[in-house]
Amino acid sequence: MPTPTSPYASRPGRWSALRRAAVDSVSGLPRQFWWLWTSTLINRLGAFVATFLALYLTVERGYSASYAGLVGALYGLGGVISSVGAGVLTDRLGRRPTMLIAQLSTSVSVAVLGFMEDPVAIAVVAGVVGMATNASRPAVQAMMADIVAPEDRVRAFSLNYWAINLGFAVSSTAAGLIAQHGYLALFLGESALVLTCALVVFVKLPESRPSADTAAGPQDPAGRGASTAPVSMLTVLRDGRFMTVVGLNLLLALLFQQAYVSMPVSMGRDGFSSADFGAVIAVNGILIVLLQIPVTRFIEHRSPATLLVGSALLAGYGFGLTALAGSVAMYALAVAVWTLGEIINSPTQMGLVVRLSPVHGRGRYQGMYALSWSIASLTAPLIGGTVIDHYGADTLWAGCAVVGTVAALGYGLLLRSLPARTATTTASPSSSASPSAPPAPAHASASASDSNAAPAGAPATGEQVA
């Protein structure tokens, strides 16, 4: 029997503390959030096609790598176009209709792509799939901001990001097994799961877009009034502080995208195999699944400025470490460093846009922010490939460290005057938990600094976000 001083005696207490931490991480969030979280997980569980599209075109169809690159570029271009358009629809039509339109369009277009054989038709439909797939992002983020209380938003965005990466990890593994029985099953499987996602939204998620009266609020700490004047895309473009944040995020997005194009090329030139790259990049997904929630519990009440500066430095110098990598272990260490930056950056950025953007313009602001990720996914492969071909991989990785430093300095200067939160919502999170009626937006009774402040930032959608 263990003595009171035995390490075994403290195990029940440790497990109790872990259980309490787990409960605290998921408690207090409204029921609608969990249905939205479930729809995100289902969506990402079916993310087969984008991951294996290049292999499908080159191995199954026999097309050249150049053609596969063209199709991938058109897919990314579709995302660029839809990011802005979907943001406008989110504000005009509402969150729920925009999500349903995007998800139904994705389901149909992905299924159609599986049956296309003409190269021109494949390229065109791939562009449509890219548009449809990315169109739900602004609506999902805006609805999440509508239904979650201000003090819980960083945690909610983190849980959603965790679902995205968990779903992607499972779908990537499953897609490889499914493809052995025919690539058409991938297209039809994704179509079915996205349709299931749309069904969840239709049945369980009422519209959450705030009314004009709800969006009105007191003057923000920066001195600008929280009016309900119409917000156009021109308004967004004229918001210098917000567009600076979009530009800074574009720099970080260009870094993160190097992991999926430039890093495998660099490893291949160093004599490493595709299996080595698979093992290295798996570190990213494993760490996000394991650390996203506990790290968020540590950072959720800390200064966004400090966190964004730190995440930019971790991202930049994490990729910079790749220049020193001469083994799989060293590559894995570099991935671990920039992954920590990604884990910190994502929920912090997501919370920042909600805190600082106008309530009645969330869709447009989210759309413009999503645009930075779409542009990065379109241009990062071109930039990385060009630098590696002309100047070498070490120059690219050193440049990544410089870019991360520039982004960190930018965040530090831009957000040094960020007003602190002075109050939190008085509404109970459970007040929006009824699935039969539209939720009472948590921002309605929040302080101006949390929900009605002048727009200055936006969330990462990382992938990133679906």
Q: Could you describe the largest sheet, including whether it forms a barrel?
A: none
Total domain units = 2
Mean pLDDT: 79
- CATH class of the largest domain equals Mainly Alpha
Compute the separation of the termini in Å.
Answer: 52 Å
Number of strands: 0
Low-confidence stretches: 216-227, 421-466
Q: In a few lines, what is going on in this structure?
A:
The protein is an all-alpha fold and 466 residues long. It is built from 19 helices and no strands.
Molecular structure report:
With 466 residues, the protein is an all-alpha fold. It is built from 19 helices and no strands. The chain has helices spanning 11-26, 31-45, 49-60, 65-92, 95-115, 119-134, 137-147, 153-179, 184-204, 212-215, 233-238, 240-257, 262-269, 274-299, 304-320, 328-356, 362-391, 393-414, 448-452. Helix 2 (31-45) packs antiparallel against helix 9 and helix 8 crosses helix 16. The longest helix is centred in the last third of the chain and has 30 residues, at 362-391. The protein starts with 10 loop residues before the first helix and ends in a 14-residue tail after the last helix.
